Amino acid sequence: MCGIFGVINQNTSLKIVEQDLRDAVDVIRHRGPDDAGSYCYHNVGLAHRRLSIIDTSPAGHQPIFSEEGDIVIVFNGEIYNFQELKKDLIKKGHIFSSDTDTEVVVHLYQEYSCNLLDMLDGMFAFALYDTIKKRLFLAKDPFGKKPLFYAWQNQQLIFSSEIKAIVKYPNFRAEIQQLSLQKYLAFDYIPTPHSIYKSVLKLTAGSYIFIDINKPITQNSITPVKYFNIIFTPKLSISEPEAQEQLKILLVRAIRKRLISDVPLGIFLSGGLDSGGMLALLAQCGVSQLKTFCIGFNEPDYDESQYARQLAVLYGTDHHEEILGIDSLVQFLPTIIENLDEPFADASIIPTYLLSKFARRTITVALGGDGNDELFAGYDPFMAIPFSLLIERSQCLQKLAYMIASSPLLINSNLNMSIGFKLKHFLKGFSPETYGNCGLRNQLWMNTFSVTEIKSIFPWAYDLTFQQLLEDVLKQKCSQQELHHIDSVILNFLTFYMHDSILTKVDRASMMNSLEVRSPFLDKNYANFVNRLPVSFKMKHLTRKYLYKKVLKEILPLNIVKRKKKGFGIPTGKWLKGTLKTMMYDILYDGKLGKTGLFDMKFLRQLYDLHLQNKVDLRKEMWNILILGLWWEKHVRT
Hints:
The protein is an alpha+beta fold. It has 28 helices and 19 strands.
């Protein structure tokens, strides 16, 4: 994995200085500590930080050029089918100077231009410059595993793997985008294509930007083009046994191709269905001597290490385990906040960061289980869908649900995903706008603050509408009107939560530690197959991951297959009442947030008091505000 940076300059009063390129890309040195390189030609500049994975020799130094030197690329990611592609290119007369996958992309461009993207099997974000035609080509992989940000300011197009490098570049003005702040309060992250800054955008998954530098560049000419869409139809006409066998074949292929590496590789093993399934399938195929990594906690409600240990013993892995005090995780929060370019309130980034840090002592590449819960309806909200369809048609049932939610018998709990917490968020999904739109309802279930609450936090945002806040989700609904309600929620998860929360979390937490994480479940062929399966193969009655579990029942211990999903939770509710109380008070009473004049700090203090007094479980809301406050202190100048 690597970090990329580049500038296209059409401002005649500003000159690209190669040292400025190096200084900017060095800000993301953690993404590539092994090597650095830069390229500067007239009004074009590219820079790169390398984490050596494939062909670790100096031949893999970037930027990489074509034989004639007229095509230049900086690349972040892995192309798993590069060897097959390379063979075909050699037959066409192409000559290679390295064994890297990056050089293959250069030669593919010479043959196929931007159509090369359909041929790539992997995860990537890259910038390629054609010096003859004077064209810039930016691209991102189908599911958006690798980040790419871009900004148009001062007649300069600046792009990078992380925003911090863009902000570092001379003369860039980092102005907060207020609508993005509102979206953060709702989503717990800032959804693509938006960012925390006015001029900076995120390239959407499965998209590319093609710019002709011979022509004047404007904001409107920097237009992403989709080359990959998540497709659920036409549904496959396939029997359950056939689907089960095909699923297994595709997943084994996806896992095996991700074992290619010239540096040590291992598996993140949580003891759950997805990482356990990967390990079992590899063992069944005869792959041995695998390294597995797990961190556990000394509080049973948050610990899965015993299940990971069980699987490691069963399959004879070289298992590495570290047990931590759950409350000790707080000490890593400042380090993580310092490295985050935007406020990001998924608390599981802390244990993900620690697992990455632990694994990096031994390996450089890890396989992770991300993506399968989204594809196979694995989350709790999927079980809520049938009940929500009943309740939305009955005023009486809605009233009953609200009565239960407000009952004093539902005592607030610090436990991970308590009943009261789930019910409170379930009821957020009912409004006139969500009727018949399960994807939108799911987003409201996932959201932290409502439009009304955001207006109370931002008194100046009195004209904020539901449509403005949820514009991205509403656009998605317009594009696929006829989806089954389960598939519409899967699409919502893949587009927003997985792309902007899960994959962002894993990318940032792993790359802070210079560790590459690969996701077999987001293999293009596997994911396309699962998406087109009949809905009943994904969720049958209330059984989630139905077909996937049928595959695993043949190869995994029954207690692993049947055990309840836990996830990487941490006790934010308890921390906010204890360990983090002083930090929270500093933000609410003396911090920079209050001095901006943007926020109603009195309202936020009232919310926090309700949480402290156990009157309402507001762990999600107050964690969101805590992260925003800490991020603001570190990254915003006043």
